[in-house]
């Protein structure tokens, strides 16, 4: 689902996945840029994956300062408990178990399509309780300033759990915004939308899915995971490969990765809600620091 040629003079903002801390960092960077006079929320296209899908819905429904204030709210220290659609903060051991399973499935997969099918099958086998999707939908809905799709073009990624086929939701597809975001963020179970079942958009290709910005003149990629991927480079799904393709086809691309002293926020503790405030502050400071460079890059056509 690539943009048509009429988008060739426009801007695209790509928001990558990265857990709860990744979402806070994305909001922080965008708010830091905004406070420095650079509003990237006016992009002609916004691509959101997993935590980035939540950020995409948030920045089109509220101002960056409002979102930053929420991200900076104090959160109690993490409690122990398993990963699941219950809104809890999983123990580091549960996150490690999830990563171990993902690594094992990647090693057994022949290619990206095979990986998607295997991840979907695993999610269906270890499905949540019957009301899991309903609980998860309520949690996601509470995070969104608005429940309606914006008029602005927003693409939200997911994967069909039954077929392994990549899915891209937008406002024309008949799926409500909250369901699109909930599906894109569903890494531990298969989220139900009507008769469909979906898993995390990060399994579509990678945590950013920047290939969806093809045809846009200027593409800004905010990646909490710094473009890292567990899949083999020869699969051609890494962010670096997508960026090379974008540039080869005429796009000018800028990337923003977390500063090295903040990388610990986006590893095993990425789902720790108590780390959202530090991640948001780090992103905000970084956004302010790079505002000059991004302003020159982002200059809009008159």
UniProtKB/TrEMBL annotation:
Residues 14-214 form the PNPLA domain. A motif (DGA/G) lies at residues 200-202. The keyword Secreted does not apply. It comes from the Bacteria. A motif (GXSXG) lies at residues 48-52. Keywords: Hydrolase, Lipid degradation, Lipid metabolism. SUPFAM superfamilies: FabD/lysophospholipase-like. This is NTE family protein. It comes from Conyzicola nivalis.
